[in-house]
Design a protein that fits this description.
The protein is built from seven helices and eight strands. The chain is of the alpha/beta class.
Length: 218
């Protein structure tokens, strides 16, 4: 099946993953880790306010007491600084480590994170430190193409978990055989996050692990 692998994705075998077991692909920020909480703490240390009043990122960054959010370019610069220096300080999502440990007994686990290249070392160390020593792929843009290239290497069932609908929709479009699940870790974000009938939304990791196990057992 080598002709199905595109340059967008490494070979599963090179990542130490077996094609004889189901594949579960999982995002990090707001799925395995409490990104908004960690980014907010980072911003506070820089003298900014992070107001989680909409399902957005850069539009939630303010100077103290300001009515208008920080210019987007300045917010992006802070975002890049966080991934260079602070992304290893976020807390794991409650229940996520236990759930992936459980899923790992019967499936291969792959971490697919949209993050700057500068984050690779800190993110890899964070995963290992919290008992998640799974292969990590850093991606940019929609996750459908790379997911299609990964699951195209195995005949086994696959599942994908992310918090963002554009990534979930991209996977559903490019790899329709993959079971897609939405998970939003931050309790402040949950009522603000858009949902879609295309993807099952489960914000409790124990329940999500049950659903993933059923999806990859067909």
């Amino acid at each position: 099946m080598a002709d199905l692998v595109t340059p967008a994705a490494p070979r599963l075998a090179d990542l130490g993953l077996s094609v004889e077991r189901p594949l579960v692909i999982v995002d990090v920020d707001e799925v395995l880790g409490l990104f908004m909480q960690g980014f907010g703490a980072f911003l506070a240390a820089q003298g900014y306010e992070f107001r989680v009043d909409r399902f957005a990122l850069f539009q939630n960054i303010y100077r103290p007491g300001a009515a208008d959010h920080l210019p987007i370019a300045e917010g992006k610069a802070l975002f890049d600084d966080f991934f260079r220096t602070g992304c290893g300080e976020i807390e794991p999502t409650p229940g996520a480590v236990d759930a992936l440990t459980r899923l790992g007994r019967r499936a291969e686990i792959l971490i697919l994170s949209n993050a700057p290249a500068d984050a690779e070392r800190l993110r890899s160390e964070w995963l290992k430190r919290h008992g998640l020593p799974h292969p990590l792929i850093l991606n940019t843009g929609p996750k459908g193409p790379v997911t299609a290239a990964l699951v195209g290497q195995t005949p086994q069932p696959a599942a994908f978990v992310d918090d963002l609908l554009p990534n979930l929709d991209s996977v559903a479009d490019h790899a329709p055989r993959v079971a897609t699940f939405q998970h939003v870790a931050d309790e402040r974000l949950r009522p603000l996050a858009p949902t879609s009938d295309r993807h099952r939304r489960i914000d409790d990791w124990a329940e999500l692990a049950d659903a993933i196990e059923r999806a990859i057992s067909r």
